[in-house]
Every structure is written in structure tokens, then in C-alpha cells.
Design goal:
This protein is α/β, with parallel strands linked by helices and about 280 residues long. It contains ten helices and 14 strands. About 40% of the residues lie in helices and about 25% in strands. The termini are far apart. A five-stranded mixed sheet has the order 6-3-7-14-8, with helices on both faces.
Length: about 280
């Protein structure tokens, strides 16, 4: 009888041991979510913004309509509307930090954690992808050139435009510290790049023949002749159908949930239609 009781005790220990081991195992990992003052569970980067009460958006200090421009003390434009939509969905106000003296400095602010987002007519480049994460594009812009007619003709004569551009090797103007420096090096490797501090300075350089052409997006290039049609006598524009710039919001590399949230807001805006434009089945 004693032997049988001893055997039952051994079996009981064997059955209880796994449960005991499980009970003594390391505790479950703490939740990665943060509980805010109002009781919500949020991702850390979202909680940071909500608790602060504002979304900090880095933006280049020089106006760039129709994306962002200040008029009568009020910022307006495509990028402004997008930033306000993101902040609105988070239930906070937005603060635009326009201390960046260059476009690349905007990207660096986001990469360094000095701003939650960068929204500033920002194109995606390989160099920038090493510092920040890109949202899905919210605008696509074709690449274009603003060309000085006389200087271009002097260099290439009667050579077909397509062939001349394919082997372009003259002085090509770009805005310094922008994505266009990288795009120009990639698209026109034989060109002699000349950086200028602003688009206005670059347009003047083309007008005076300092460079054969300026390289930027089609919207900016086309606007030059729209604002002053007389320039069509000395300048011409060319748009490339096989090259586009994807404008995206820049997000910190550690802020994955914020990036997903921004993508959702962009998708939501793209899918919105006016009531009269919505299709309904009968």
C-alpha cells in the first residue's frame, strides 16, 4: 500500500511540474502600447503627439505654391491641407516649423526626431531613404526642363531635340540641396550640374544663358511661361513622359505606426468624392 501511495505521489508531481514551470516562467512581454491620460491605448509615437497636443510638421521656409504659401499671415496649399487633415484625424492642432533653410534640412529634421513629419513638396530619393521613411505618394509630377533657345541651338545645332537631350552634356541648373540634384545626376550623367540657391535664381540663370537649361518638375517649369508669356521668345519647355517625381510625407524611421496612419489619411483623401460624383447602383 505504501509503495502504491509513493507511486501515485510521483505521478502527481510529474503532472503538476509542467504547470509549475509555466507559472514560474518569465512574465509576458509588456504591451508596446501606451495608455494616454484619456485612457486610450496608442502606439508610442501617436501617444507622443496626442499628449503634446500638436503635430509638428517641418516645412521649407520659402513658399512653393500651390503646395504651401503664406498669404495675409495664413498658410495655404496642398501640403497645408494634408497636414491639417492628419492632425485633425489625431484630434490635435498642427504646428509648422519653417526654420529649415534648405529642402534637405526638412528631411534631416524628421530623421533627427525634431519634427513628427516633413511635408514640403518632397520628392523620394535613395539618399533620403537612408534617413526617413516615405509615405505613399500623394502627388505625381513629371520631370521637365526650361531651356534657353539660343544657347541650346548654338551647342546642338539642328540635331533632333530627343537626341540632344539623350546625350545632354552642357551646363544644367538645379536647385541646391534638393532631390533635383540626385535626379539630374541619374538622368543626365554627362551634364555639368550647377546648383542655385532658389528656383527664382535658377530661372534668372536660364534667362541670361548662364546654363543651357534648368531641371525641375513640370508644374514649376510650365508656370514660368504662364506667368510671363513673353519669355517664350527666348525660353522653351520640355516635359519627360518617362520620368516622374513621387511627392510623399516624410516620417521618422522608428515611427512605423505613424507612417501607416499617414498612409490611411492619404488613401482616405484620395477616395473622397463629392456627393454628386458618387456612383450608386439602382
Amino acid at each position: 500500500m505504501n509503495a502504491r501511495l509513493a507511486w501515485l505521489a510521483i505521478v502527481a508531481c510529474l503532472l503538476v511540474a509542467p504547470a509549475a514551470l509555466a507559472a514560474n516562467a518569465a512574465p509576458a512581454a509588456a504591451s508596446p502600447l501606451v495608455r494616454t491620460a484619456d485612457g486610450r491605448l496608442l502606439a508610442p509615437e501617436i501617444a507622443r503627439i496626442v499628449e503634446r497636443g500638436e503635430l509638428v510638421v517641418a516645412m521649407y521656409q520659402t513658399d512653393s505654391p500651390p503646395f504651401y504659401a503664406q498669404k495675409d499671415g495664413v498658410l495655404r496649399g496642398i501640403d497645408i491641407d494634408l497636414a491639417q487633415a492628419i492632425a485633425g484625424e489625431l484630434g490635435v492642432k498642427v504646428r509648422f516649423d519653417r526654420t529649415s533653410a534648405t529642402v534637405d534640412a526638412v528631411v534631416e529634421m524628421v530623421g533627427n526626431g525634431q519634427a513628427d513629419l516633413g511635408i514640403s513638396r518632397l520628392g523620394r530619393t535613395l539618399r533620403r531613404s537612408q534617413m526617413v521613411a516615405f509615405s505613399t505618394p500623394y502627388r505625381m509630377l513629371g520631370h521637365a526642363m526650361l531651356i534657353h533657345r539660343v544657347r541650346f541651338a548654338e551647342k546642338y545645332g539642328k540635331q533632333p531635340l530627343k537626341e540632344a537631350l539623350r546625350s545632354f552634356e552642357g551646363p544644367l541648373g538645379v536647385i541646391a540641396n534638393t532631390s533635383w540634384v540626385e535626379f539630374a545626376r541619374r538622368d543626365f550623367p554627362a551634364a555639368k550640374l550647377q546648383p542655385y540657391p532658389s528656383w527664382q535664381a535658377l530661372v534668372e540663370a536660364v534667362r541670361h544663358g548662364e546654363v543651357l537649361a534648368a531641371y525641375r518638375d513640370e508644374l514649376a517649369v510650365r508656370e514660368v511661361l504662364e506667368q510671363d508669356p513673353r519669355l517664350a521668345l527666348s525660353l522653351r519647355t520640355v516635359t519627360f513622359t518617362d520620368a516622374q517625381t513621387a511627392l510623399s510625407v516624410m516620417v521618422g524611421v522608428r515611427d512605423g505606426t505613424l507612417l501607416s496612419f499617414v498612409n490611411e489619411v492619404i488613401a482616405m483623401q484620395a477616395s473622397r468624392r463629392k456627393p454628386e460624383e458618387r456612383r450608386m447602383k439602382p
